[in-house]
Fold this sequence. Notes:
Keywords: Methyltransferase, Transferase. Helices cover 31% and strands 29% of the residues. The chain is built from 15 helices and 18 strands. The strands form three sheets. It has a nine-stranded mixed β-sheet, with helices on both faces. The model has no long low-confidence stretch (mean pLDDT 94).
Amino acid sequence: xKNFDFLALKEVQDFIETNLNETISKLALQKNPFPELxxxxxxxxxxxxxxxxxxxPTWFNAENIIFPSKISVEQTSSEKTALYKSKLISxxxxxxxxxxxxxxxxxxxxxxxxxxxxxxxxxxSEIVKHNFSQLKVENIQCVSxxxxxxxxxxxxxxxxxxxxxxxxxxxxxKVFMLRDCEPNVPxxxxxxxxxSSKILIKTAPLLDLTAGLKELRNVFAIHIVALxxxxxxxxxxxxxxxxxxxxxxxxxLTKNKEEKFEFELGKSSVEINFxxxxxxxxxxxxxxxxxxxxxxxxxxxxxxKLHPHSHLYTSDEKIDFCxxxxxxxxxxxxxxxxxxxxxxxxxANITTRNxxxxxxxxxxxxxxxEGGNLYTFFTTEQKNNKIVLxxxxxx
Length: 395
């Protein structure tokens, strides 16, 4: 095992801090100012720490923190999603079977009396243990080894098991399946239930909800977590013995608030209304789009939908909505003379929904420059006519 103690030396930490904005390729050509120390490791600290500035501000701003490779920093949960995740569950004891850099475990420690952080990479486990000490966290136990063996030897029952499976290298190019990941959660569920009746699984947003539900069972809820309108992770809440329809819970974490929306999957819903574009247009946020709850949006917000497959909504009076809101200034048919009059050689933001042409093709065809205050939606209305909505953005 490597000794990383030299990275915590004051002169090394000062050098790292001073050079955070320097390019690594430029620094690599310089003479090592610490010839007796590992220059590559020092350079890695600079690169990894610079990656952590916005994503992991607690670690970035703390003293004597040691970072793993920049790839590990890129792959770890952000603090914002880890904080949200930690508030979903609580209890006495939780075991994190895929601990990684320890961001999730750090936030779980605020909701649980005891956290066990498992990490098969012994070097990473030592780094995380060191960092928790620097962050003055005292209720996390770091254990290095294979998660199944750690569970077997623990002789404990846990309130929750947390797992963040990673795709195996040989699964590249395949459709995302949980069985292609380590650990193989679908095959290990019964084993995990020996140690806890509640399991929280984090997966990448790439995983299709329907595919995940086919592989898993006892899914109580699926949380779709977006950060600034980009879906970052799916959280699968498993309750042993649960047999009902799972609840889909979406959240979009923004600077100012949390946009939340939820519905019960598979529940028969009332008939939704379709209508012509009215005064205001609504586009659901990325988390809702991932959920597939398009009819539920119309029902819960009491909005008319433009078309069964357009996933755009409209109303005459403005409402508070989980997504972007626009005021419609004009509706034109997608015809040559109308396009020449209103959009050709103009500047506009373009979105397509249920439309046969791509954004790039539309821009090229009508010489529309990118940007400006005009927002356009190329879509299909309820009678299957192609239309363009000219809008100003409200939210």
